């Protein structure tokens, strides 16, 4: 389907170009040669006829060129984890006939270095005395051009079109155009993990993508046109650079048309560049542009000499003004909150960025369905079509200048990358600066360098002085410089790099009261939190069939094969759904904490869709194709991620029935001011029965967050059985909800007919031998390393992934259970982790079941990291001797008076053990059980 659409796009482009005689389409068949030894210049390949062929636009990979990947492939991207190259379990994947790498998507072929592209062109007679320019929309990476053996020049833009002035090289008639493309990282190093070049994302491809053509212009033409709409002042400023290619002064007319108004200005221009600033009156009925009203207007700019049209441009723009007021982000004078995700240049079908607007419209519409209004382009900048789509839909872009100067690179130290970033920024602004969706800009991501702060301060200062159409910050992640319009900082998020199980969601009992004001109050600029979330879900192996292009999910094949070998393949879909539910809960917590923070500027997820590299980071609620995985819908997600979100500060989500449930209700409203909005709340049980309800009398709801609606207190004394309840708040038709749990406050008494112990001592063995029933509850930390003690269990899902983070905790993805199992009869639960499992996960070890018996099917399973895919359990049952043994990785011994969820779970297990349902089918010897605690 995508191939057919691409062909249709090329046909439409060809029709457009042929219908305008001043443009010559260069797409199609090109002659080609690989220059492995970089000898083409010295051997004068530009004077020879190359003997291979490729189709452009395209890359070597899409044309089936390059080498099979293997251990010698010169990947661009760091390996934080070397296990693939060392461990025996990966040996089978290091062979030439079965090579599979687990760290990112794998291309069919690979080539880093020089390749040559060549074709003949016929310049029409009508182009005589015209200015002729070559346009490559997206060339990767460095290009050098020859016409008939004469070198024209070199360009190395990564994120903007490469354009050459060929006027002095082309005359009417036949010519040979030779293009040398080099995709190897040489003197200029943006950083090996930069998404503009790295194999972690789009891949280090060699070729030319998007539009490619020759264009003939008059002897004077627009070199640059920048539009500065100022609705508040009622005028439009145009900054033009007009190039006069003649040796004489020329009298020209500039004719501007906007809506029904035409304005003509006359100038005398000198030979060479002429920079002009023109002020035009703005029509009074012009409306502002934002996410809700993406009003667009077209300004036509005609350059004439007498009656001869020399150049003609149409500029689409929107009227919008970004500013900082009282430490808050504002757009058109109103507070705005950025609900962002990252776009990391992942295009697995082609390996290079999409240049058709329909694909970008598809992706951005999905983002809007999930409540996203903002996209940060991590260390790269998208093509023109992406801006056009965002203009139409009202998406706020943050653009970066192709660099993540870290690991292999640094900025501010006088290396070639310093000048490259400055030049890349100029190229990006010149190419895309008129788009209203181009709202923010940074150098790139997470920089390093001894003098990087000075360099970045100069970078921001320069752009703030020279182009006021957007906001600027030094970099994504850091540093927090005084000159920044806003701060991009990772501190305002739940999980920090290296936090492990000490983060809020893992170390503190469940609540929804926390926000980031304790940190943000230290600064005067607004915050946009950097790369929040990074919560993983299990791989969706059905996704592998989607990789019908040049990249394959060989990493998924590795993970799937290990799951099969461990006898768990039948659980793959369940692992995906259960871990996905936990992932969604974690994202809801992160997003709501940002929305609860006073004056906060917004957040940037990493991300709404999966990141295919850096160890395989399955952090998306959507897959890399921006499609659902089956565990959360856009409708569900947008309840907590939207322009208007009801919020509840709830001190405790796990309570006893001698307490009150308390919630302070507020709202984040960045939609529109509302008069007398309906605001109601209900508390229901899982059957949908309403237990309490009420409303708030709201006169007016302004724009902003932390707007109080009222307080809810619900007496739990009438609840006598363990239950899961839900608070739902609806404001102006927008709803959000929170689960909470209520357990009986009376202390449960253990039954004397059952033995509760933490060790398999002689007393316990005698009990079992005599046909007794035993609950072996291991104390936290007592599980031996060999039996799972080295598995770091937390409540949250895995952060990013264990390979890229050097094994950071947690190592697991929540629980999987059968909610209908009689052991859980008195402990209400779904099949996945919710907050009632926080206590169990926080006081437990994951038992490595396969080392006991592959026949054990646990009552509660822990979902392991997809890299290791071990069979792990929290609760399982076996026969030992004549007795029945229930083994718990959950500690039911320590601080039980402060752990209502643990007491309730223990009660449920007790009732199960007393019932006829407790009938273990797998037998184990005592020696096997002893392994659990042997050191």
Question: Can you characterise this structure?
Answer:
- The protein is α+β, with helices and mostly antiparallel strands.
- The longest helix has 25 residues.
- The radius of gyration is 31 Å and the shape is globular.
- Helix 6 links the parallel strand 26 and strand 27.
- The chain is built from 15 helices and 48 strands.
- The protein starts with a helix and ends in a 5-residue tail after the last helix.
- Helix 3 crosses helix 4.
- The N terminus is likely disordered.
- Strands 27-26-25-24-23-31-29-28 form an eight-stranded parallel β-sheet.
- The chain has five domains: 187 residues, Jelly Rolls (Sandwich), CATH 2.60.120.260; 98 residues, Sandwich (Immunoglobulin-like), CATH 2.60.40; 310 residues, Glycosidases (TIM Barrel, Alpha-Beta Barrel), CATH 3.20.20; 95 residues, Immunoglobulins (Immunoglobulin-like); 177 residues, no CATH class.
- It catalyses: Hydrolysis of terminal non-reducing beta-D-galactose residues in beta-D-galactosides.
- Belongs to the glycosyl hydrolase 2 family.
- InterPro entries: Bact_Beta-galactosidase (IPR050347), Beta-gal/glucu_dom_sf (IPR036156), Galactose-bd-like_sf (IPR008979), GH (IPR017853), Glyco_hydro_2_cat (IPR006103), Glyco_hydro_2_N (IPR006104), Ig-like_fold (IPR013783), Ig-like_GH2 (IPR006102).
């Amino acid at each position: 389907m995508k191939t057919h659409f691409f062909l249709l796009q090329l046909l439409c482009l060809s029709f457009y170009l042929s219908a305008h005689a001043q443009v010559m389409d260069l797409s199609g068949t090109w002659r080609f040669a690989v220059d492995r030894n970089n000898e083409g210049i010295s051997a004068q390949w530009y004077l020879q006829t190359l003997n291979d062929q490729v189709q452009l636009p395209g890359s070597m990979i899409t044309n089936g060129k390059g080498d099979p990947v293997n251990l010698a492939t010169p990947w661009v991207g760091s390996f934080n984890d070397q296990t693939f190259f060392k461990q025996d379990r990966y040996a089978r994947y290091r062979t030439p006939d079965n090579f599979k790498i687990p760290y990112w998507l794998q291309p069919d072929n690979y080539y880093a270095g020089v390749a040559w592209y060549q074709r003949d062109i016929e310049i029409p007679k009508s182009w005589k005395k015209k200015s002729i320019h070559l346009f490559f929309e997206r060339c990767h990476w460095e290009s050098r051009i020859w016409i008939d053996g004469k070198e024209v020049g070199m360009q190395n833009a990564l994120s903007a079109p490469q354009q050459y002035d060929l006027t002095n090289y082309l005359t009417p008639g036949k010519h040979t155009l030779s293009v040398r493309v080099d995709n190897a990282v040489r003197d200029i190093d943006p950083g090996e993990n930069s998404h503009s070049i790295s194999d972690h994302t789009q891949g280090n491809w060699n070729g030319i993508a998007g539009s490619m053509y020759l264009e003939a212009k008059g002897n004077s033409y627009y070199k640059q046109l920048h539009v500065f709409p100022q609705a508040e002042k009622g005028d439009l400023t145009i900054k033009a650079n007009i190039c006069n290619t003649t040796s004489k002064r020329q009298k020209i007319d500039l004719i501007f048309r906007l809506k029904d108004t035409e304005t003509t200005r006359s100038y005398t221009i000198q030979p060479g560049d002429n920079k002009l600033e023109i002020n035009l009156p703005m029509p009074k009925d012009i409306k502002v542009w934002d996410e809700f009203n993406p009003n667009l207007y077209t300004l036509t700019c005609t350059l004439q000499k007498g009656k001869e049209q020399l150049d003609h441009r149409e500029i689409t723009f929107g009227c919008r003004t970004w500013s900082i007021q009282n430490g808050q982000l504002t757009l058109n004078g109103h507070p705005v909150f950025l609900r962002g995700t990252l776009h990391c240049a992942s295009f697995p079908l082609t390996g290079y960025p999409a240049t058709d607007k329909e694909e970008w419209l598809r992706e951005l519409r999905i983002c809007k369905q999930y409540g996203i209004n903002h996209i940060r382009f991590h260390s790269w900048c998208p093509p023109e079509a992406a801006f056009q789509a965002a203009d139409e839909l009202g998406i706020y872009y943050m653009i970066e200048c192709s660099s993540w100067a870290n690991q292999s690179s640094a900025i501010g130290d006088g290396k070639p990358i310093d000048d490259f970033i400055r030049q890349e920024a100029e190229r990006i602004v010149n190419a895309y600066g008129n788009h209203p969706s181009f709202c923010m800009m940074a150098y790139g991501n997470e920089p390093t360098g001894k003098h990087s702060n000075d360099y970045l301060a100069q970078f921001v200062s320069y752009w703030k002085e020279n182009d006021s159409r957007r906001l600027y910050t030094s970099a994504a992640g850091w540093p927090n410089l005084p000159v920044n319009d806003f701060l991009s900082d990772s501190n305002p998020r739940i999980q920090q790099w290296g936090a492990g199980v000490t983060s809020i969601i893992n170390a503190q009992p469940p609540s929804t009261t926390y926000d980031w004001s304790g940190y943000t109050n230290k600064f005067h600029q607004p915050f946009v939190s950097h790369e929040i979330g990074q919560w993983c879900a299990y791989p969706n192996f059905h996704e592998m069939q989607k990789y019908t292009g040049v990249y394959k999910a060989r990493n998924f094949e590795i993970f799937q094969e290990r799951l099969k070998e461990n006898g768990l393949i039948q659980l793959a879909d369940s692992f995906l759904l259960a871990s996905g539910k936990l992932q969604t809960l974690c994202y809801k917590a992160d997003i709501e904490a940002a929305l609860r923070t006073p004056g906060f500027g917004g957040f940037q997820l990493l991300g709404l869709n999966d990141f295919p590299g850096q160890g395989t980071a399955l952090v998306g609620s959507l897959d890399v194709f921006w499609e659902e995985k089956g565990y959360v819908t856009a409708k569900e997600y947008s309840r907590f991620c939207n322009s208007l979100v009801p919020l509840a500060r709830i001190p405790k989500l796990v309570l006893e029935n001698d307490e009150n449930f308390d919630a302070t209700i507020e709202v984040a409203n960045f939609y529109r001011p509302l008069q007398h909005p309906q605001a109601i709340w209900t508390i229901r049980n899982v059957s949908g029965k309403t237990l309490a309800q009420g409303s708030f009398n709201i006169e007016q709801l302004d724009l902003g967050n932390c707007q109080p609606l009222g307080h809810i207190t619900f007496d739990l004394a009438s609840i006598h059985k363990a239950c899961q309840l839900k608070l739902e708040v609806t404001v102006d038709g927008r709803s959000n909800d929170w689960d909470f749990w209520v357990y009986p406050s009376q202390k449960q008494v253990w039954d004397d007919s059952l033995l509760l112990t933490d060790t398999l001592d002689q007393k316990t063995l005698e009990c079992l031998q005599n046909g007794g029933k035993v609950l072996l509850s291991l104390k936290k930390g007592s599980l031996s390393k060999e039996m799972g003690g080295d598995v770091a269990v937390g409540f949250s899902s895995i952060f990013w992934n264990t390979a890229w983070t050097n094994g950071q905790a947690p190592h697991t993805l929540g629980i999987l259970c059968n909610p209908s199992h009689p052991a859980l009869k008195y402990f209400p639960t779904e099949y996945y982790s919710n907050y009632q499992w926080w206590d169990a996960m926080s006081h437990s070890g994951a038992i490595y079941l396969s080392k006991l018996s592959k026949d054990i099917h646990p009552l509660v399973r822990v979902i392991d990291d997809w890299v290791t895919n071990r069979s792990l359990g929290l609760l399982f049952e076996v026969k030992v001797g004549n007795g029945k043994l229930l083994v718990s990785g959950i500690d039911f011994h320590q601080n039980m008076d402060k752990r209502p969820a643990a007491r309730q779970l223990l009660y449920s297990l007790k009732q199960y053990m007393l019932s006829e349902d407790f009938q273990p089918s797998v037998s184990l010897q005592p020696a096997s059980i002893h392994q659990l605690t042997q050191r």
